[in-house]
Design a protein that fits this description.
About 25% of the residues lie in helices and about 25% in strands. With about 350 residues, it is α+β, with helices and mostly antiparallel strands. The structure holds uridine-diphosphate-2(N-acetylglucosaminyl) butyric acid. The site of uridine-diphosphate-2(N-acetylglucosaminyl) butyric acid has 17 residues, from strand 12 and helix 10.
Length: about 350
C-alpha cells in the first residue's frame, strides 16, 4: 500500500549490485546488498547488526575494490545545501553528505561566500571530505570545517562532531584513526562549514601563482583563484571519466629531520616541506618518478605520465592488478630511498 510505504523509512535494498561504474578507478566488483540513502530516517532504519558488514560509499573517488563486497553498501545520496547562519566573523554553510564536492564549492562561490576555492575540482562528495581531510594548493578542509552530523549505526543516535572531535591531520581524521571509514560505525549525514568573512586569496602555491600571472591577474577574487586551480588540475590530473584513477595514490611521506637531511645530501632535487612538528614531508610523486615509474605500466595499470603519484587504470585492470603495481612502486621507492609509501585510498 502506498500509505504503508510512506510510513516506513526503510530504503530499497538491492542485491548483487555491480560496483564497477560506481568508483572512479572503475575496478570490477559487486556488493551483495546495496542501498541508496536519501534521508536521515532511512539511514537510522539500517542501524541494526543485521546489516553488517557495512561500507559507506560516497563518490567512490578514493576507493580500491579488490573484489566483491559481501555485505551492505550504503550509497550516501542525501542532498541539500543552505546557509544556516552568520556572525561577525563568518558565514556558516551546511550541505548534505551526498552533494558533489565541486558543485558545492562552485555554489558557495556563486553565493559570494569565498573560502573553499582552493579545493575546487576535487572529486567526491561533501560527506567524504572530512574523512580524509581533503586538501590542495595550501588548504585543507579542516581549516574551513565547523561541525558534522553522523549516525551512530550501533545505536541509531545522531552525534555531532566539532572540529576538535574530528582530530584532523594530514589526509586523516578520527574516522580513519578509529577505522569507522571501513566498518561504517559513524555515517556522516551533513557537514557545516565556517567560511571567514575576512577573505584573502591563498595563492602562494607556485603552480597557482604562475597561472594567475599568466592570466595577468595580480589581485584575484575567489572565482579567479578557482578558475586558476581548475586549469592547473586539468593540466596535471587525469579526468576519471576519461582515464579512471583515484587521485593521489600514496600519501606524501613524513619523515624525521635527520632522514630528510640524509636524503637531501644525496638527492639535492628532492622536494621537502617542513612540518610544524619539526618533521619533513617529502613529495611522493618525485620519489616515484625517480624510481622510474612515471608513465610506466604494469599490465593494465600504470602511474600517470603527467603526475607520477596518480595510479591509473589503462582499461580492464582488476583490484589484484592495482595491488601488484602498488607493491612494485613501494618496493622500488623503498629500495632507492629507504622510504615507505602508504596508500591514500581506502580498501573496503
Ligand atoms: N613531482 C615530481 N614528479 C611527479 C609529480 C610531482 O617531481 O611526477 C614533484 C613536483 O614537481 C613538486 C612536488 O613533487 O615539486 C609536489 O607535486 P604536486 O605539487 O603536483 O603535488 P603532490 O604533493 O604530488 C599533493 C596532494 C594532491 C594535491 C596537490 C596540490 C597528496 C597525497 N596529494 O600532491 O592531492 O592536489 O598536492 O596541492 O597530498 C589527492 O589527495 O588525491 C590529491 C590529488
Amino acid at each position: 500500500m502506498a500509505a504503508g510505504r510512506l510510513m516506513t523509512p526503510s530504503p530499497l535494498i538491492e542485491r548483487d549490485v555491480d560496483l564497477s561504474t560506481r568508483t572512479t578507478l572503475a575496478l570490477p566488483g559487486h556488493a551483495a546488498r546495496f542501498a541508496e540513502i536519501n534521508s536521515a530516517d532511512q539511514l537510522r532504519s539500517l542501524a541494526d547488526d543485521r546489516y553488517t558488514p557495512r561500507f559507506v560509499l560516497g563518490g567512490g573517488s578514493n576507493l580500491v575494490l579488490t573484489g566483491d563486497f559481501d555485505g551492505l553498501m550504503l550509497h550516501m545520496a542525501m542532498r541539500g545545501r543552505e546557509r544556516v547562519g552568520d556572525d561577525a566573523g563568518a558565514w556558516y554553510v551546511r550541505a548534505g553528505a551526498g552533494e558533489n564536492w565541486h558543485d558545492f564549492v562552485l555554489w558557495t562561490l556563486a553565493q559570494g561566500w569565498p573560502g573553499l576555492e582552493n579545493l575546487s575540482l576535487i572529486p567526491g562528495t561533501v560527506g567524504a571530505a572530512p574523512i580524509q581531510n581533503i586538501g590542495a594548493y595550501g588548504l585543507e578542509v579542516a581549516e574551513r570545517f565547523h561541525s558534522l552530523s553522523a549516525c551512530d549505526m550501533r545505536s541509531g543516535e545522531f552525534v555531532r562532531f566539532d572540529r576538535e572531535a574530528c582530530r584532523f591531520g594530514y589526509r586523516d581524521s578520527v574516522f580513519k584513526q578509529e577505522g569507522w571509514h571501513v566498518d561504517g560505525r559513524f555515517v556522516i549525514t551533513e557537514v557545516t562549514f565556517r567560511l571567514p568573512k575576512a577573505w584573502t586569496p591563498l595563492a602562494c602555491y607556485a603552480d597557482v601563482a604562475s597561472e594567475l600571472d599568466a592570466r595577468g591577474i595580480a589581485a584575484p577574487d575567489a572565482q579567479q583563484v578557482a578558475a586558476a586551480i581548475i586549469a592547473v588540475r586539468q593540466r596535471k590530473l587525469p579526468d576519471p571519466a576519461q582515464l579512471p584513477n583515484a587521485g593521489s595514490f600514496f600519501h606524501n611521506p613524513i619523515v624525521d629531520a635527520a632522514t630528510a637531511d640524509r636524503l637531501r645530501a644525496t638527492h639535492p632535487g628532492l622536494p621537502c616541506y617542513a612540518q610544524p612538528d619539526g618533521r619533513v614531508k617529502l613529495a611522493a610523486g618525485w620519489l616515484i618518478e625517480q624510481a622510474g615509474w612515471k608513465g610506466r605500466n604494469l599490465g593494465t595499470a600504470g602511474m600517470y605520465e603527467k603526475q607520477a603519484l596518480v595510479l591509473v587504470n589503462r582499461g580492464g585492470a582488476t583490484g589484484a592488478d592495482v595491488l601488484e603495481l602498488m607493491q612494485a612502486v613501494q618496493r622500488d621507492v623503498h629500495a632507492g630511498f629507504g622510504v615507505a609509501l602508504t596508500p591514500e585510498p581506502i580498501f573496503p
